Structures are given as structure tokens and as C-alpha cells.
């Protein structure tokens, strides 16, 4: 499934609803709302720190696993980092790391990036 999202504050809500519905339809095993929280954080980061266009790809693997990829474009690229010092906000990637079995980031050659996370209820 591929979804193109606007660079608006409503994009995380739209992505969350679509991923939840797709996971249910495809019978993806979910650990509570982990997929919804992961996609919400990834899309929020793309909206706040990236440039349009923003896209979401959800791939369903064997045994109920899922991979979410959120891509954005931009002239520059900064690798997303997990915040460790006390601050208001900025802890989304810590949540992604805690809820996923793996996550990472890939730079695009022309700018922008894809941040991905995998969720495997058996892993």
C-alpha cells in the first residue's frame, strides 16, 4: 500500500486511520496500537522536519509482520536522532524504537530521506 500525504497537521491522523484499517483488512497481527503509534510519529516527523511530497508505504510480510516507510523530500538531509536530554517534545523516535523490532533511515541521493520501522509481533 502506498499513500501520498499532504504536509499538514492532519496527515498523521489520516495515516494512522488508513494503516489501522489496512492492518485489520490484511490481518496483520498487531501489538495493541503499536503500528498506529509508529506511523503517527514517523509522519509527524516528516511534516515537521521534511518537505513535501510525503509518502507512506506499508508492506505486509509473512507471519503478521509489517514494515512502514515514510519518505519526504528536501534540499538538505539531517539524520533523525533519538533525543536523550530533557526537553518538551522530540521523543517520537524513542517511541518508534520501543514499539518496533527494527527502524532506520536512508538518505535519498537528491535530498530527503526515508525513515522505516518494522513491527513483528513474533520478533
Query: What's the CATH H-level homologous superfamily?
Result: Histidine kinase-like ATPase, C-terminal domain
What composes the largest sheet?
Answer: 5 strands, antiparallel
- Walk across the major sheet and give the strand order: 1-2-3-5-4
Number of helices: 3
Number of domains: 1
Shape: globular
State the distance separating the first and last CA atoms.
23 Å
Beta-strand segment tally: 5
What do we call the CATH topology? Heat Shock Protein 90
CATH architecture: 2-Layer Sandwich
Uncertain ranges: none
Order of helices and strands: EHHEEHEE
Gyration radius (Cα, Å) is 14 Å
- Tell me roughly what share of residues is in helical segments: 25-40%
The structural class is alpha+beta
Characteristic key phrases:
single chain, 123 residues, alpha+beta, Heat Shock Protein 90, 5-stranded antiparallel β-sheet, 3 helices, 5 strands, 28% strand
How would you describe the overall organization of this protein?
The protein is an alpha+beta fold. Helices cover 32% and strands 28% of the residues. β4 and β5 form a beta hairpin.
Quick synopsis:
This protein is of the alpha+beta class and 123 residues long. It is built from three helices and five strands; from the N terminus they run βααββαββ.
Please specify the SSE layout and strand pairing.
Layout: E1 2-5, H1 11-25, H2 34-49, E2 51-60, E3 66-73, H3 92-99, E4 102-107, E5 113-119
Antiparallel strand pairs: 1-2, 2-3, 3-5, 4-5
Helix pairs in contact: 1-2, 2-3
Amino acid at each position: 500500500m502506498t499513500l501520498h500525504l499532504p504536509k499538514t497537521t492532519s496527515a498523521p491522523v489520516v495515516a494512522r486511520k488508513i494503516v489501522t484499517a489496512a492492518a485489520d483488512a490484511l490481518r496483520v497481527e498487531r501489538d495493541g496500537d503499536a503500528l498506529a503509534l509508529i506511523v503517527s510519529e514517523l509522519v509527524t516527523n516528516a511534516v515537521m522536519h521534511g518537505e513535501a511530497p510525503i509518502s507512506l508505504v506499508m508492506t505486509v510480510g509473512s507471519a503478521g509482520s509489517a514494515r512502514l516507510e515514510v519518505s519526504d523530500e528536501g534540499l538538505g538531509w539531517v539524520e533523525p536522532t533519538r533525543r536523550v536530554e530533557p526537553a518538551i517534545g522530540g521523543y517520537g523516535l524513542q517511541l518508534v524504537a520501543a514499539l518496533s523490532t527494527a527502524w532506520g533511515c536512508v538518505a535519498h541521493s537528491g535530498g530527503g530521506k526515508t525513515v522505516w520501522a518494522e513491527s513483528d509481533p513474533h520478533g
